[in-house]
Write a structure and sequence with these properties.
Rossmann fold, porphyrin biosynthesis, alpha/beta, Ferrochelatase_C, 11 helices, 44% helix, ferrochelatase activity
């Protein structure tokens, strides 16, 4: 029997999604490409990246599952057991966003709140998740409210600033010379024509974290741009590291504040690709710990959900 009661509020916890195994990479990539199968070379490149990560694909999926479970526990502690019931909805893997909404409907949920595990809003990312969720909720007669952003929530900023301080401490006597390089997933450059808040919110998060951590030597860069043949927001992290090398920078702490868990864009794009690029240019590159199911991050999510339910977005 479901834990959902007639008065329970559903919480649709949305994220990008990742395949459950290497066998699922092709179907996952095909969904990302809107039903167009990748070429053999494209598939091999993505599969190689997954293989390069210690432990394979499974830890990535476990992180998402762990975040949804931790949010459920946090909501139970703050609002009482049964007040909120969490459901997962993934953009490119099962359970898809539509599956999560359908599961809520099957449990008799009539009111729900959608929240994406990305603190900063963009119409191209968070907005897209919300559109799919709203369309599916309407089919089932579910009233769905959206938490669109929480990029300056005090708990989030404090959790990130603690990680920056911890990361800088690893540099020892080189700490004061270390540059903190904040980053986030790039988007197509056309987003700038839409008056989209994504870039501004990322800079606001970075500034708030730097200020809380007492850091003055920091910059922001983009990473993980798609290969679509159109311009994406830049400069890319590799381009930035190349410039920093030319400027004589020897120590860099990567702080990917646009990401909230250990997944491909962190474990490969930063830990393997960017680190190798940096080392070849005489730069020591370290990275902050990711949030994953950190209690402060869960508190930021729970506060945002409860605040929305009470009629005040946080």
């Amino acid at each position: 029997m479901s834990r959902a009661e007639s008065k329970a509020i559903g919480v649709l916890v949305m994220s990008y999604g990742t395949p459950e195994s290497l066998d699922g990479v092709e179907a996952y990539y095909t969904h990302i490409r809107r039903g167009n199968p990748p070429s053999a070379q494209q598939l091999e490149d993505l599969t190689r990246r997954y293989r390069s990560i210690v432990g394979g694909v499974f830890p990535l999926r476990e992180n998402t599952n762990g975040q949804a479970a931790a949010l459920q526990r946090t909501l139970d502690e703050r609002a009482g057991y049964g007040a909120y019931v969490c459901y997962q909805g993934l953009k490119h893997a099962a359970p898809y966003i539509e599956d999560g909404v359908a599961a809520m409907a099957a449990d008799g949920i009539e009111e729900a709140i959608g929240i994406v595990l990305t603190p900063q809003y963009s119409a191209m990312s968070v907005g897209g998740y919300m559109k799919r969720a709203q369309e599916e909720a309407a089919k089932h007669g579910i009233t769905l409210m959206d938490v669109q952003e929480y990029h300056l929530h005090p708990e989030l900023i404090d959790a990130l600033s603690r990680r920056v301080i911890e990361g800088l401490d690893r540099f020892g006597e080189k700490r004061s010379d270390t540059l903190v390089l904040f980053s986030a997933h790039s988007l197509p450059a056309k987003v700038l024509e839409m008056n989209d808040p994504y870039a501004d919110q990322l800079l606001a998060t970075s500034h708030a974290v730097a200020e809380a951590a007492g850091v003055e030597n920091w910059q922001f860069t983009w990473q993980s741009a798609g290969q679509t043949g159109q311009p994406w927001l830049g400069p890319d992290i590799l381009e930035t590291l190349g410039r920093l090398s030319d400027e004589g920078v020897k120590s860099v702490l990567a702080a990917p504040v646009g990401f909230v868990s250990d997944h491909l864009e962190v474990l490969y794009d930063i830990d393997i690709e960017a680190r190798k690029f940096a080392e070849e240019r005489g730069i020591r590159l370290e990275r902050i710990r990711m949030l994953n199911d950190d209690p402060q991050y869960m508190a930021a999510l729970a506060d945002s959900v409860i605040g929305m339910a009470n009629g005040r977005a946080n």
